[in-house]
Write a structure and sequence with these properties.
Three copies of one chain form a homotrimer.
Chain A (H helix, E strand, L loop, with lengths): L2 E6 L7 H12 L4 E6 L7 H11 L8 E5 L10 E6 L4 E5 L13 E6 L15 H14 L10 E2 L11 E3 L2 E9 L5 E6 L7 E5 L2 E4 L13 E5 L4 E6 L4 H5 L6 E6 L1
Parallel strand pairs in A: 1-2, 1-3, 3-5
Antiparallel strand pairs in A: 4-5, 4-6, 6-7, 8-9, 9-10, 9-15, 10-14, 11-12, 11-15, 13-14
């Protein structure tokens, strides 16, 4: 039983994800298909890459992960399959969406998906999730060697999270992801939070990093190290997005006290 | 392993879809249940019919498709099962929601679902997805002959997409579906787009049909033939719904240049 | 094949639910995982408890139900597993979210989940759905005896739906759940609706309980007994939330005519 996961910006209102699952059910009926997320903001390749990076470690190492955030669909951007040294396969457009889940030292092989006999025919100009990536994932789930899908290539497009700026006694990061609860995930790692710190985002100042959301009163802002190992600003039983008024891209300052 | 698909207007916030899956897991544990979409606009039977029509061809031919967009639930509207000549079974209310996926020449048999022993008991007046359609789909997945579910009937309620109006050198269609990206799908088929055309929707004019979204600059409107084989007006890396300001039902004109 | 269900307030935009499924697919690959709902309003433990109560009866009696609405994550609130006399297992935080699905006379055993060897390590302070509840559910799906997961305890936190106030000839309940359609579910049971009644909510008065939504004209308010056996105020082919202007917590009066 092979696991195939799906990460897209397709949302859940249209039948697009369901149609991809139809292709998989038709061509690889024994695969188990799992949704990682279809709520990646439209065309936000970096957010898709971040979501995929956070999810992959919790799946079986031999899983096949399909990620389709693909504003260049129908152009000459490449379709690729990345095989990692752990035995994981990543399938999607070569626009960086796979890159955070496959750091350079983890890449065993990259294949440019050119063998059209694995695709649906005719192939649309707007929905390669259905016409290219789902059928390729089905072939891989059925045991097709990635090498059969096209020529090996030496590189993939890479994206990077924005870096944290460091100066004496302070550090400036940013909000990189805002979740359903309105929690603000930053690019500041736990290892950047030594000692007593004050965290600033928009007009809000939070003293120290707490052990849980419930360390403060209801409606109060709180900083925690979240499940991704990153600094998060939340509001207990509330929404930091609304209360703090911050969004992805906004600066976050960490000052030593 | 039989595939059962679900298409509804139930949305994803409530437990209604989960409860239907509970009935299926209880009565047909070997079936594979796949969501086509639960984002059909509430009570929009035609949108549900369109979604189902687009999805069915990508599923195994022996799949069982359940569609519940059912504003007449609890009234005397019939519950039916349509068997197609391809071996596909469609289950839902007889209000047209199944009709676009089952054109007249593809219908092998229609059964009026009257055999209450296949339903849950008691049966509510508001949730036949749970009480009628899921248990009937479970019975079908377990191999029950549709003929056991009720008497054969000769006709079903049919809906039609709005027609395209043609005149010399021009053609007027309409927006029939707006997706999560804000892309505007029209009822104009690829075969209606011969030669050099200018497409008009709201105050926007688009010259020609492009090969991909990326044929224009970011934020610019673009016309493509989409994955349903229909003319679509989109905005590159944006939302045509917002930028163009159009919605389902709005007219779209095609003029030969 | 064991069924594991998931009920959370995580929403569908983030990868949180997908990551829980990754843990389950890794540790209990033979389990069938079904979403009950991830649209419980954030931190609304009572709504989660109500959703779980409505769903459990429609699943196989040996199913494992995981419910994570957990504003106290990371604090000393207990994690528990409730075994019912029917053979059902309920897993979640001990904050009441499991309590409506497990009335006192149905509880066979309660276990305090303390055996950390069943959890992921390290364990985050913010996502016990991933680190505690999914791996525990996987262990249970694989046949682990609940008694192996920690010591038996004698009680769980309990929540109750608000009671209905009764006086001569009238009764006051409230809206307890508003669904995707804008239908208003109340805490008034079918047995409270004897005789001819007039139902009031906000400024709207509805005469009598109808057999279906279609008993009134389009856009008109209607009262029905819904699929949960409770009085519901709806608007035919519309939204009572919008038309009536009511929300969860608002009073509903029932007067005998």
């Amino acid at each position: 039983m092979t696991v195939v996961t799906l990460t897209t910006d397709f949302g859940m209102t249209d039948p697009f994800v369901g149609i991809m699952k139809g292709v998989l059910a038709t061509r690889a009926p024994d695969a188990t298909v799992i949704d990682v997320s279809h709520g990646v903001p439209p065309q936000d390749v970096l957010a898709g890459a971040l979501v995929l990076r956070q999810a992959v470690p919790y799946f079986p190492p031999d899983a096949i992960h399909v990620a389709v955030v693909d504003p260049g669909v129908g152009t000459s951007r490449r379709a690729i399959c990345v095989a990692t040294t752990a035995g994981t396969l990543l399938v999607g457009p070569d626009n960086g969406v796979l890159s955070l889940a496959a750091p350079p030292d983890s890449v065993a092989k990259v294949v440019h998906l050119t063998q059209e006999r694995f695709f649906l025919s005719p192939r649309s100009a707007t929905f390669h999730g259905r016409d290219v990536f789902a059928p390729v994932a089905a072939a891989l789930a059925n045991g097709t060697d990635p090498a059969a899908l096209g020529p090996a290539i030496g590189d993939i497009e890479r994206l990077a999270l924005p870096p944290v700026a460091r100066s004496a006694g302070s550090l400036t990061g940013q909000v990189i992801y805002v979740d359903h609860f309105g929690n603000l995930t930053t690019n500041v790692a736990e290892s950047d939070l030594m000692g007593e710190v004050t965290i600033g985002v928009a007009a809000v100042r939070v003293r120290g990093v707490s052990a849980s959301y419930a360390a403060v009163g209801r409606g109060e802002p709180v900083a925690v190290v979240n499940s991704w190992g990153l600094l998060e600003i939340a509001v207990r039983d509330g929404s930091a997005r609304q209360t703090v008024g911050a969004k992805a891209g906004d600066p976050v300052t960490i000052e030593r006290r």
